[in-house]
Design brief:
The protein has about 110 residues and is of the alpha/beta class. It contains 4 helices and 6 strands. It has one domain: Rossmann fold, CATH 3.40.50. β1, α1 and β2 form a beta-alpha-beta unit.
Length: about 110
């Protein structure tokens, strides 16, 4: 299963980047964001949303993300959008679950995996 997990913040300038990454072939797409962004962001591909409140503590946000990480492998993450708090919580959740991941970025030559 090839999975994309991306943070998606309120800064609409980064939404196009995430939208283009979502065009790739993924078995599952998970977007870590907030309720406002979920209401405003649209894409033709379905995604699972992990809704967090960045006013909550780091442990609470991390635990919310960890709930969504069951039965995943071949994980690719993108942190171009979102806040540092969301980024840290995602990385901590992946580490706590012992999951390996690759970074997935969009370049002028297409998607780069590292």
């Amino acid at each position: 299963m090839k999975v994309l997990i991306a943070t998606l913040g309120i800064g609409k300038g980064t939404w196009g980047n995430i939208g283009r990454l979502m065009q790739e072939e993924w078995d599952k797409i998970v977007l870590v964001s907030n309720e406002w962004t979920k209401e405003k962001f649209s894409h033709e591909k379905d995604a699972d949303w992990v809704l967090v409140n960045t006013r909550d503590g780091m442990e609470s946000i991390t635990e919310e993300i960890k709930k969504s990480l069951e039965d995943m492998e071949n994980i690719h993450i993108n942190l171009i959008s979102g806040s540092g708090k969301e980024h840290m919580a995602l990385l901590m959740a992946l580490k706590d679950k012992g999951l390996e991941y690759k970074f997935c970025t969009l370049t002028k030559d297409g998607t780069k995996i590292s």
